[in-house]
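Quick one, tokens below:
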């Protein structure tokens, strides 16, 4: 008997009833498994980086998915996090609300 950890995680995140997590994806990316607790917007491929980051509190975690490893770098610096939040908000406010049709 196996567990569906994806479904369990989605249920837990949805039950938190917090503000939805904002996620920027590369245009044409259709994999949106966390739609119940995330809002998505799309950016042009030339403006997309292959390093994910999560901002939480006064920390930011950068995640690199390499060929044979996952590398996580956490920065605990409120000035850096404030600057990244401001940049993210700018991208969010100017990004595509839906994927382009082309």
């Amino acid at each position: 008997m196996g567990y569906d950890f994806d479904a369990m995680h989605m249920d837990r995140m949805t039950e938190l009833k917090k503000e939805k997590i904002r996620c920027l994806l590369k245009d044409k990316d259709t994999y949106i498994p966390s739609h119940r607790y995330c809002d998505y917007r799309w950016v042009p491929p030339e403006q997309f980086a292959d390093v994910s980051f999560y901002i939480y509190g006064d920390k930011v975690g950068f995640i690199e998915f390499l060929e044979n490893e996952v590398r996580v770098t956490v920065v605990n610096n409120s000035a850096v996090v404030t600057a990244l939040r401001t940049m993210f908000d700018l991208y969010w406010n100017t990004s595509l609300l839906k994927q382009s049709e082309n």
